[in-house]
Structure formats: structure tokens, C-alpha cells
Design a protein that fits this description.
By secondary structure, this protein is α/β, with parallel strands linked by helices. The chain has helices spanning 2-25, 41-58, 78-90, 103-116, 144-154, 171-186, 205-214, 228-237, 282-294, 302-320, 326-333; strands spanning 27-34, 61-62, 65-73, 96-99, 120-122, 137-139, 162-168, 190-197, 218-222, 246-250, 270-273, 337-340, 343-347, 354-366, 369-381. The termini are far apart. The structure holds 3,4-dihydroxybenzoic acid.
């Protein structure tokens, strides 16, 4: 009697185990690692919201498997990002690692992608070299050189010849500085000084005072998403605008997430970027309306679009490969061409990096709200960092 019970128990356990395996195989897991707390939490919030919107609009099954989005907060600490990625690969057996709110977080995790042959989709970080850190990295955000070169071409044709650069002192800031400076000088302009501020808890005041003393035509700025508001405030408080110094930059400074709260000082600022919430296309209007509706009126920024398009790349690759992972999934991500809320884009199969339009935009009031209004387009911009 006891023996029979024992055998039945074993049979049940075996059945349960095989059911679990089948269930695991019937799932398509995406590990989304983001800064959800701390100074870069807005990036995490935007990307998570965009990923959830994509799933709501496109269904939670792909290639016959149930999509499971596992969202983890790395608090923007690189060692935490790496540890979480390792756990997601080993324990959860995720098919894709995604997110990566800052360059150091993506770079720290690159070896995990390589060793485990897990595709890693960078939805936010934007230093040019990131895609070279692992053959398993794909990017759907943008690169700083793409944006920096565009504004360095615009500036000298619009009365801005002498510039001081002011950037956050890490990967994307160094890219933003270098590619702007080289191009401006090539175009006959002058860079009077190159200032770098700490990436975390920056005090902009002494740097802006230095800019004021140097009396350039403009200060060119890069700070990461979510950090632009205090800089704008200081710019006005130190009277740089009154002194006739213009502010230009990559679009990170007039981030849609916080632009409307910046007030008059932001009005008229010209920047270059790949996405504006006011981009004039039917697809973008639909995207913005759906995003705002699902998120209490929150306006999507360029981070949200990187997340939304990243999900598109993952879904389409999963469909094409019927839910298998690894190299096949990666290969199916390469070369995808599609319309994004930002405009047309594709994933360059050679570099695994994003190619898209860069727009020159001016902050203007539309129905009482500040928006980056696109007024010129540079088409199909490849990452200039890959030309070397
Ligand atoms: C990076 C982060 C940002 O918030 C941004 O706007 C651009 C680049 C980065 O760390 O790569």
C-alpha cells in the first residue's frame, strides 16, 4: 500500500516537472533591466510604460508562446545591472536582455550577453562604442555622434561660430563633445573651451559662470535624460540668456519628459535629435495618444520610443525564428526596417546599430504647451562613430 502510494507520488512529481518544463518552453521571457529608482528613474518609467504599451497593442503571445516581461530595478549601479542580468539568464532563462538606461550599465553587462549568447537590446544608452562591446548587442535608442554632428552643421549657418561645450563627464558626454567640436571646427567655427561636469549630482553654477565669462555665441550642452531642468534654471538665473548667449545641444536637454515644466527659458532653444513627441506622422500621433492615455497624461520621450521600438525588434525576431533564442534570434533582429514613432528606422545588419533621421528642432509653444518642433531633417543617419 505504502509502496503504491510512493510510486504514485513519484509519477505525480514527474508529471508536474514535465508540465513545468513545458510551461517554461511555452514562455518567451524578456528581462527588462532599468533604473526604476534614483536620479535616472524617469528613464526606467518611460521605457517600462512603452514596453507595456507595445504588449497591450500587439498581444502577449508571440510565436505561440506567452510573453513574460520581467522588469528589474538596477538603481543605475553597473554591478547591480550585471548581477541581475546573470540571474535572469541562469535562473529565468530569458531569451532577451533589454533596457540599459545608462552607458556604464550596458557596458558592464556586455560580457554576460557574449558568454551566454543572449541578445541584448539597448533601448536607452547612447555612447557610440556600446555595440562594439559584444556581438550580441543591438541598439534601438540612438547615438550621441548622430545628434552632435547635425547640430554642429546647423550652428555656423545660423550665426553661431564661437561655442563653449558643457557635457556630463562620461561616455555619451565625451562623444557629444568630441563629435560636435571636430565638426564645428571643420565647418569653420571655434570651440573656446570644453567643460565637463560630474555625471551624478552635478552643480552647474560654476560651469555656467565660466561660460558667461568666456562670452561665446552659444553654449552647447549634453546632459542625460531627466537632468536638463536644473541646468536650464541655472542658465536663466545666471543671466546667460540676457547676456545674449544662446543654448544649443542634443535633444537630451529639452527632453519631452520634463520640457513643459522648464518654462520660458526653454522657449526657442534649438537642438538636434531623433525623436520629438510632436513628430508629425499618423503613427506618432497614435503612439503619443495611447501612451498618454495609459500613463495619466505622461508625455512619451525619446527613451519611451527606444523601448517601444526595441519591443518591436524583439517581437518580429521571435516570430521569424518561432521563439528560439540565441544566435538565430539575434540574426533576425539585424536588418529590420520599419516605421517608428520617430520616423523611418532600421537596424544596420553590419553594426547592429540604429539608422534613422535626425531632426533639427526648436522649442515652441503649441496650445500653451512647450514642444520640440522639428523644422529640418537629415535623412538616414548612420552612427558617425562607426566610420573609423
Ligand atoms: C545616456 C543616458 C541618457 O539619459 C541620455 O539621454 C543619453 C545617453 C547614456 O548613458 O548613454
Amino acid at each position: 500500500m505504502q509502496k503504491r502510494f510512493f510510486l504514485r507520488a513519484i509519477a505525480c512529481a514527474a508529471l508536474a516537472a514535465s508540465a513545468t518544463t513545458a510551461m517554461a518552453q511555452d514562455k518567451f521571457k524578456i528581462g527588462l533591466i532599468l533604473p526604476m529608482t534614483g536620479p535616472f528613474a524617469s528613464t526606467g518609467k518611460q521605457i517600462e510604460a512603452a514596453a507595456r504599451l507595445y504588449i497591450a497593442q500587439n498581444g502577449d503571445t508571440v510565436a505561440g508562446k506567452k510573453v513574460e516581461l520581467i522588469v528589474k530595478d538596477d538603481t543605475s549601479a553597473p554591478d547591480v545591472t550585471k548581477r541581475i542580468a546573470q540571474e535572469l539568464v541562469v535562473n529565468e532563462k530569458v531569451s532577451v536582455l533589454a533596457g540599459f538606461g545608462l552607458t556604464p550599465l550596458a557596458l558592464a553587462t556586455a560580457p554576460i550577453a557574449t558568454q551566454s549568447k543572449t541578445p541584448l537590446v539597448v533601448m536607452a544608452a547612447a555612447t557610440s562604442s556600446i555595440t562594439e562591446a559584444s556581438p550580441f548587442i543591438i541598439r534601438t535608442s540612438f547615438t550621441l555622434p548622430q545628434a552632435a554632428v547635425a547640430i554642429a552643421d546647423w550652428a555656423p549657418n545660423n550665426g553661431i561660430k564661437k561655442v563653449v561645450t558643457l557635457v556630463a563627464d562620461y561616455g555619451p558626454g565625451i562623444d557629444a563633445e568630441k563629435y560636435f567640436k571636430d565638426r564645428l571646427i571643420f565647418n569653420g567655427g571655434q570651440v573656446l573651451d570644453t567643460l565637463r561636469v560630474p555625471m551624478r549630482n552635478p552643480d552647474f553654477a560654476p560651469f555656467l559662470q565660466k561660460v558667461r565669462d568666456l562670452k561665446p555665441d552659444a553654449v552647447y550642452v549634453f546632459v542625460p535624460s531627466g537632468i536638463g531642468a536644473p541646468l536650464m534654471k541655472q542658465f536663466a538665473e545666471r543671466g546667460l540668456d540676457k547676456a545674449g548667449i544662446k543654448l544649443i545641444g542634443t535633444g537630451d536637454i529639452t527632453d519631452d519628459d520634463i520640457l513643459n515644466g522648464m518654462g520660458e527659458v526653454a522657449n526657442g532653444v534649438v537642438t538636434s535629435h531623433h525623436y520629438s513627441a510632436s513628430h508629425n506622422s499618423a503613427l506618432n500621433k497614435k503612439f503619443v495618444a495611447a501612451f498618454e492615455k495609459a500613463n495619466n497624461g505622461l508625455r512619451p520621450n525619446f527613451m519611451a520610443v527606444g523601448g517601444y521600438d526595441g519591443m518591436r525588434v524583439i517581437y518580429e525576431a521571435a516570430k521569424a525564428t518561432k521563439g528560439t533564442g540565441g544566435q538565430a534570434l539575434l540574426d533576425a533582429m539585424k536588418g529590420q526596417v520599419f516605421e517608428s514613432p520617430r520616423g523611418p528606422m532600421f537596424i544596420d545588419a553590419q553594426t547592429r546599430d540604429v539608422v534613422h533621421n535626425i531632426y533639427i528642432r526648436k522649442v515652441e509653444k503649441v496650445n500653451g504647451q512647450l514642444y520640440n518642433q522639428e523644422f529640418a531633417t537629415i535623412k538616414d543617419v548612420k552612427d558617425p562613430g562607426k566610420a573609423k
